[in-house]
Specification:
By secondary structure, the chain is mainly alpha-helical. It has a single domain, classed as ADP-ribosylation/Crystallin J1 (ADP-ribosylglycohydrolase fold). Helix content is 63%, strand content 0%. The protein contains 17 helices and no strands. The chain starts with 5 loop residues before the first helix and ends with a helix. The relative contact order is 0.19. It binds magnesium ion. Residues 58-60, 279-280 line the site of magnesium ion. Magnesium ion binds next to helix 2 and helix 15.
């Protein structure tokens, strides 16, 4: 294990989220996609990101920043809802292509005055898992125990995705980030993710779904002996699934990360060149591997273009999490 300090892991998780999001953005939900080797603009036929500049982040990173603001205020479902709603308004509200299906439903209900307890009861897509990296970082920095960690994840999910599948998937990603932040060996990062996925199924509104923890283990085994990035992208897209359900995209993100052995550059490139929700699988894989390998493992040119294009100050973002964690 390389000796990486906690601050570098924090910035690695955040850069991994943002660079994965931006690298995966152009290929998101395309029928036929090119193999990307660098940051590209959103192509004209992109259903959600046409005209986006190369390096531009999407809802994954923007909502992760909204969660960070909520963490600074004494974390609660109310503060999460308020900051997500501020983001929702900032991107154009109900007419925006940038808002996923569960979050759209929840934010419109929030606007209409629906009680918080009712908002996220049907959200099973990956909108809560895609934004969860700051919770994994915060939980590591604040030394959260198992129950406290799950409370944080559930609170982050509650306004939009308060369901057992979404909490299970979000817990899996956050736990992997947390374990990586704590310096765990790679196999223990995966094991922490599997365990948290199982625990997460006990939270929120129970809805049937495949076993995310078991799918993570299966997906990691499925790719273990593949011999190229192309084979991993293809196999995971066809068999595990890389679409919006968190039962697909979360195991996919772990499988990409596992094959890459925690290298964020490799994991992000594979995720961005898979199918379906490429910005989200790349953001999740980037967060996990960024925490594991630290910010220096994320190519400097990626960080430069993402920082410049979005006016993103990761150092300041990381400081906010450090402040929130006390
Ligand atoms: Mg996105």
């Amino acid at each position: 294990m390389p000796d990486i300090d906690l601050a570098a892991r924090t910035r690695g998780a955040l850069w991994g989220t943002a660079c994965g999001d931006a690298f995966g953005m152009p290929n998101s939900f395309l029928k036929e996609l090119p193999w990307l080797t660098e940051m590209k603009p959103g192509p004209e036929n992109s259903p959600y990101h046409a005209g986006y500049a190369a390096g531009r982040i999407t809802d994954d990173t923007e909502q992760a920043m909204a969660l960070t603001e909520a963490l600074l205020e004494g974390f609660s479902a109310e503060s999460v809802a308020r900051h997500l709603f501020d983001w929702f308004v900032s991107v154009g509200g109900k007419d925006s292509l940038a808002v996923g299906p569960s979050t759209m439903r929840a934010m419109l209900a929030f606007e209409a005055g629906t009680p918080l307890s009712e908002l996220g009861k049907t959200g099973v897509t990956n909108g809560s898992a895609m934004r969860i990296s700051p919770i994994g970082v915060f939980a590591a920095l604040s030394g959260a125990g198992t129950a406290g960690f799950l409370d944080l994840v559930e609170t982050a999910c509650r306004p939009t995705h308060h369901t057992s599948p979404a909490i299970s998937g979000s817990a899996a990603v956050a736990a992997a980030v947390k374990a990586a932040m704590e310096g765990a060996a790679w196999d223990d990062v995966v094991a922490a993710s599997v365990e948290a996925a199982e625990l997460g199924t006990e939270r929120g509104n129970w809805i049937y779904c495949p076993d995310i923890g078991a799918k993570i283990e299966w997906a990691c085994g499925l790719v273990a002996d593949l011999d190229s990035e192309e084979a991993v992208a293809d196999t995971v897209s066809r068999l595990v699934g890389t679409g919006e359900p968190c039962t697909e995209s979360v195991p996919a993100a772990l499988a990409f990360s596992h094959w890459a052995k925690g290298n964020p550059e490799i994991a992000i490139r594979i995720a961005a060149n898979s199918r379906g929700d490429t910005d989200t699988t790349a953001a999740m894989a980037g967060a996990i591997c960024g925490a594991y390998s630290g910010e220096d493992a994320i190519p400097a040119e990626w960080r430069e273009i993402v920082g410049r294009t979005n006016d993103l100050d990761v150092e300041a973002w990381a400081k906010k999490l450090e402040t929130a964690a006390g």
